[in-house]
Amino acid sequence: MADMITTEDPLTGEEIEIPADVEAGEIVDSPATGAELEVISVDPVTLEEAPELEEDWGE
Amino acid sequence: MADMITTEDPLTGEEIEIPADVEAGEIVDSPATGAELEVISVDPVTLEEAPELEEDWGE
Amino acid sequence: MSGPDGDGDAPGAADPTYTASVVGGSGFTGGELLRILHHHPEFSLAQATSRSKKRKTIGHVHPNLREMDLRFTPPADLESVDVLFAATPHGVSMERIDAFQEAADTVVDLSADFRLGTEAEYDEWYDGHARPDLLDESEYALPEINRGNLPGADLIASGGCNATAAILGLKPLFDAEILAGDERIVVDVKVGSSEGGAGGGDASSHPERSGIVRPYAPTGHRHEAEIEAFLGTSVSFTAHAVDMTRGASATCHVYPEAPVSKGDLWGAYRDAYAEEPFMRTVAGGGGVYRYPEPKAVAGTNYGEVGFELDPGNRRIVVFSAIDNMMKGSAGQAVHAANLALGLDETAGLEFTGLHPVGAP
Amino acid sequence: MSGPDGDGDAPGAADPTYTASVVGGSGFTGGELLRILHHHPEFSLAQATSRSKKRKTIGHVHPNLREMDLRFTPPADLESVDVLFAATPHGVSMERIDAFQEAADTVVDLSADFRLGTEAEYDEWYDGHARPDLLDESEYALPEINRGNLPGADLIASGGCNATAAILGLKPLFDAEILAGDERIVVDVKVGSSEGGAGGGDASSHPERSGIVRPYAPTGHRHEAEIEAFLGTSVSFTAHAVDMTRGASATCHVYPEAPVSKGDLWGAYRDAYAEEPFMRTVAGGGGVYRYPEPKAVAGTNYGEVGFELDPGNRRIVVFSAIDNMMKGSAGQAVHAANLALGLDETAGLEFTGLHPVGAP
Amino acid sequence: MSGPDGDGDAPGAADPTYTASVVGGSGFTGGELLRILHHHPEFSLAQATSRSKKRKTIGHVHPNLREMDLRFTPPADLESVDVLFAATPHGVSMERIDAFQEAADTVVDLSADFRLGTEAEYDEWYDGHARPDLLDESEYALPEINRGNLPGADLIASGGCNATAAILGLKPLFDAEILAGDERIVVDVKVGSSEGGAGGGDASSHPERSGIVRPYAPTGHRHEAEIEAFLGTSVSFTAHAVDMTRGASATCHVYPEAPVSKGDLWGAYRDAYAEEPFMRTVAGGGGVYRYPEPKAVAGTNYGEVGFELDPGNRRIVVFSAIDNMMKGSAGQAVHAANLALGLDETAGLEFTGLHPVGAP
Amino acid sequence: MSGPDGDGDAPGAADPTYTASVVGGSGFTGGELLRILHHHPEFSLAQATSRSKKRKTIGHVHPNLREMDLRFTPPADLESVDVLFAATPHGVSMERIDAFQEAADTVVDLSADFRLGTEAEYDEWYDGHARPDLLDESEYALPEINRGNLPGADLIASGGCNATAAILGLKPLFDAEILAGDERIVVDVKVGSSEGGAGGGDASSHPERSGIVRPYAPTGHRHEAEIEAFLGTSVSFTAHAVDMTRGASATCHVYPEAPVSKGDLWGAYRDAYAEEPFMRTVAGGGGVYRYPEPKAVAGTNYGEVGFELDPGNRRIVVFSAIDNMMKGSAGQAVHAANLALGLDETAGLEFTGLHPVGAP
Ligand SMILES: NC(=O)c1ccc[n+]([C@@H]2O[C@H](COP(=O)([O-])OP(=O)(O)OC[C@H]3O[C@@H](n4cnc5c(N)ncnc54)[C@H](OP(=O)(O)O)[C@@H]3O)[C@@H](O)[C@H]2O)c1
Ligand SMILES: NC(=O)c1ccc[n+]([C@@H]2O[C@H](COP(=O)([O-])OP(=O)(O)OC[C@H]3O[C@@H](n4cnc5c(N)ncnc54)[C@H](OP(=O)(O)O)[C@@H]3O)[C@@H](O)[C@H]2O)c1
Ligand SMILES: NC(=O)c1ccc[n+]([C@@H]2O[C@H](COP(=O)([O-])OP(=O)(O)OC[C@H]3O[C@@H](n4cnc5c(N)ncnc54)[C@H](OP(=O)(O)O)[C@@H]3O)[C@@H](O)[C@H]2O)c1
Ligand SMILES: NC(=O)c1ccc[n+]([C@@H]2O[C@H](COP(=O)([O-])OP(=O)(O)OC[C@H]3O[C@@H](n4cnc5c(N)ncnc54)[C@H](OP(=O)(O)O)[C@@H]3O)[C@@H](O)[C@H]2O)c1
Ligand SMILES: [Zn+2]
Ligand SMILES: [Zn+2]
User: Fold this and answer.
1) Name one Pfam family in it (chains A, B) (predicted).
2) Domain B4-49 adopts which CATH fold?
3) For chain C, how many helices (H) and strands (E)?
């Protein structure tokens, strides 16, 4: 398994593990919530909730 | 509707109508049988049954 | 002769010419008969019978017919009409046939009671027959094999749905002499839940019945009798219940003596069905729908047949698909009645189905 | 003006009066339009467009239309017709509207492109609008709320299916002043898989999509805009995908200020819909089908509405059910076109559905 | 105390410690109890009762339990065991409770007979109660709201499946004081066909039941009582039958007084369930499964809860999903029994479900 | 060798003995492997690979595995483990076999790449083979026909699901010399949608795929090769897609030379399977579940076989049913791995399924 780092889930404030080599702009899913998080910066890693996939089901 | 020509369905021998401007190699479906036919030559138009799409359903 | 039904369902049409009643109108095929007749330009509906639902409106049972202004009457109170359709379980019509024939000049029976030709067959496959004297008179309803005898017929026996599917698939091979009648034929059938009728037991409750592939007639019994009677060959029949509501699909595995080509097969099916208004041959091609399947004919009186060659095994696989409620029962019955009375044979049966459609 | 379609589908009818084309004919609602128009006594079909299926027969995509003798043409090659139906994804019609209006005097659009009245609404709910100048001209297709403006309309916007279901259920309460517009309204919707159109992704594959109750629009966005625009009230909208192919069912939970009786409710729905040819009120009673449900209207242009009183919570629960392919799109579009052209409004839309039916 | 069941289902485990019987073992929840207990490391199964199937093997009714070497016994012949599970229709347990308590020190009842706290509630919502003296003694089984009172309990009332779904979804909002109890709460529920139990009528036959969205409890009655009893708030409850076999999904629409953030909600659900072995919070994110849905917990004792904020309407939408056969009945019952007896609470309940899965 | 997985899934069990990885972990059979291995007392999971989902959590794809604390890694980064399971499409393993064997002493492949014995067969039925040198070494995974060769095997080829179903049904007839190998055998198969894997096209979208009986392999090609290789007889194979997600059901129609009795058949099946932990013979009897059906084994590693005699046609109908995700792929693979490593053969595979269950 790739190296992991610990950071804070922006939605829950919980400590979560994500891959250590994430890049800015990458979307990772939170192991705590399953939510998609965007990597805002990498040194240190900060995350925020990714903008929602606007899924149109054709209405 | 585009111009149509009359030709013979290679599977049934029936007269069928297909677009007049088909090109060699094009696949047209037969209005008589629904089967996919390959245009072998265009002047005159000759058709033969298209090789079957090998669809693997993953077994 | 009755007046038109006042609700304007057949706009522009002339007044209906014939009156009709449905015995067993609260059942599944009875409901389909009511729906077809209600929209049929030449029929006016007089009565629909039910013992358990008598006095209730048709719409109480059949939600698609809420607009109909009619209530169920007891089957004992039959009025005089031109055509009586009986959609009752096996055994009822043979007991009540005198009353039916007294009420109507033309009787179309959807049960098995008048399908076979001889008392001996009923002794072998059923529990005998109460009125063997009538077996000679009755005509099998399926126009694709009995069109010639339907005009003027006054006792018509609508075919079984599985038998109809199998017969439609296999008949062109006999007509074209690709099969001779002494070959082994496997008929592997898959059917929907409406085939069991409205009064199901444990096995047809939703939790037990959904998502299944369940052998329900592992060896064929009665269905074989009917196929044999009309194709002149015995078949090895097996039926499975699958998760759809309407539909019967028959896959026939046959081994002709002499090699055949795809062209021979296309020829056989074209000869058999090119002039038939309700038959389509679907055999290969592209897209999602390449062979017959019940979804493609759901709600309609169409039958789809098709085939594939298996040269390695010297086998032909024949597929056929119908809606058991329509081509397999109510639609076939009305089709035959149209022919019996000299009407346009497609009258009332024009619906071509829906796409997409789930498990209709 | 075109000649009749030669295949005799509308026997006895006079020659069709109008020509029509369908842009997006390979899609789900486009297929329904083709089906309806093909059997419509007053329309003759000129073209059906598709980019991905061009030159293929209609039956290649829509197995129920195998009998049609027509091939898809590219959407760039539009011939001149009387009515053009556009069944394309959101955003296409607003870009191509000049070409559409050049090809036809009457354009009926099934997308959201011309449903809302102002550019501001498109800025808020969508990504703006390319042709805001036309928003004033377009008419909402749903006859039950906009019948008066349809005759002679030349740009018609067919409603969204979920919005249609909600509007049909709630409107009688506003008309009867049982609701005033400032109440909180919960609209909890359940829809089938055809709502997503023909090109689904992972979430709509059979293994992932079957057997579900899946929140897919947990909070409403765009659907709310349309409901608000036509009912003049905001709603709390949530939609779930469930295991059916056709159908949209809306359950609206509303809390009127003043107490109401069942009689009041029956009065409100009767006043709203007694004269409407495609609306039924179903509210209680016996049998299996006591409230609106999509199965009961599957394949038809009918809408069912109904209600139940919950005095303990001072709540009214309103149920409504439509077939999203019909009353929710293609049927509504043809209904509006019938009214725009002065035809019999039910022409081509008479099918009343099937019983039993699975998950149509 | 009994010996181990000889068929080696719990390899490596020590001998079971407790004996158990299931009254109503031929029913749906009874079958699940048998399955769980059969594989449970600490229980040995003594009896399963049925009147209609007595003397038949368990596998005759439950095909997944064909390997079990046990036959149904009549409910009158109860042997002495440690724990008796009653999975009988409402009203049976209150009549037979003395016999049950004589047979076993611990009785776990899956019906509604011992869920509410007072005779008055049974008078209001049911037809009264035969043994009101016992209502004080019984403990509600759902560990997420009553964990503290379960150790040592000898009369345990397993919750209703719809009530369980609603309570699990809403409780964190009350605990976190996001809701105070006087708000209007809409609980819109969708359930599968197994909720009706094994003996269904017409409405639950496959042809009538498949493909539906059918209001079956338009206004809530009894389900509301139980939710009110445990959340201390009244709710506006409506339930719909949909096309799945297992599963209950509750969508709760709530309007808190004060604005909340997503972080507040995540906090509330984490506080409530972070330590709960069977609860998951699923609220947004990517992929196909973004919110709670019954498919994701089918066959398991897990409950999923989640939420979405609707700032425009100042609404929170709360979703919860359980398997009505497990977390909604048999699983909950065994979970409570584990806690009552001081066993590992997850014993026998470890199955985490399947993917993909249809409509389980 | 790895430590235990810390989440306590296998309470009481000793530390897992073997490490394992799954290549193709984001697919359907890969997901089942992950589920089984995660709960398996003797395995600790090291890696699950996916290209498209790399870095995502397992639960992102497989909602039943949300509790797993693991992310997908790219298939290029394989760590060293004891056993590697490959659940990739046909053709991948034969290309990557060196990397697989370098990473693990034991490789279990779920694709067709190592099932057949000779390059000639791959030339005939597939597009040749990249590593024919390994065909001799590989062992077919199905213990019911190859148990003796599995201990110590280091390259194992898990069988095709349809082939597995057919082989399990027919093999007892060959062993008992009821069939000799030169008879005509019809194998009519019905399968669920998961057989197509996670990446379906148009034909597997929910609207097109639900409610169907669709011939998808009208004549058998590749499936026949595998059956022939292991039964030593050619068969006439035809497969239909039906509306379930999991499950493969084979109906074999066979005509033995000499007459047989039901007792002979019971004897043949008992001889073949009495000692097999995962095989059940179900042939007649009462209740709802009288013959093999996929519902009865859904989610499990069990196979059901059964038969019916058709004396009139001198036919035996053989039914067999498996879950294609389990006995037909992931379960069979783990079963074989258990035997290869000398573990308890049922380890990790004890789940006996659910009742009722919809279309799992
Ligand atoms: N379902 C199919 O796919 C199918 C296909 C081909 C042929 N058929 C045949 O069509 C017939 C009807 O089938 P179905 O599926 O429609 O059955 P069904 O749904 O069970 O309906 C039977 C109808 O007959 C009535 N009935 C029963 N016993 C009667 C009696 N003794 N006297 C008068 N009425 C009686 C019932 O109503 P009350 O009990 O209220 O009177 C009900 O209306 C059967 O013979 C069947 O074999 C069915
Ligand atoms: N499905 C419903 O229940 C429903 C209900 C109400 C309203 N609607 C609306 O109706 C419209 C159609 O929905 P649907 O479900 O039928 O969608 P669909 O099945 O995806 O069909 C879309 C059709 O549009 C064509 N198309 C796509 N992009 C195009 C372009 N740029 N130019 C020309 N043709 C294009 C497609 O064919 P090619 O790609 O081959 O050209 C296809 O024929 C949508 O706006 C939808 O919101 C749908
Ligand atoms: N289904 C659910 O999702 C669910 C969820 C939560 C709670 N519950 C509750 O659990 C209980 C059982 O539900 P179910 O769905 O399992 O019902 P079910 O499938 O109808 O089973 C009922 C069982 O009780 C037996 N029984 C009926 N009357 C009896 C009597 N007078 N004395 C002794 N045994 C009797 C029946 O067998 P015989 O008739 O052969 O004796 C059968 O085994 C009900 O109280 C229900 O409300 C069900
Ligand atoms: N489904 C069944 O019922 C069944 C039964 C018996 C046998 N099988 C066999 O089992 C195998 C898997 O079937 P499935 O149904 O699980 O298929 P699937 O759902 O399509 O999964 C295929 C998996 O392989 C990965 N993959 C694809 N191409 C790859 C490549 N070139 N290198 C590495 N990974 C690759 C995919 O993930 P990424 O694309 O993200 O890498 C995915 O994880 C097939 O060979 C199939 O024939 C399936
Ligand atoms: Zn279903
Ligand atoms: Zn389905």
Assistant:
1) Zn_ribbon_LysW
2) Rubrerythrin, domain 2 (2.20.28)
3) 10, 13
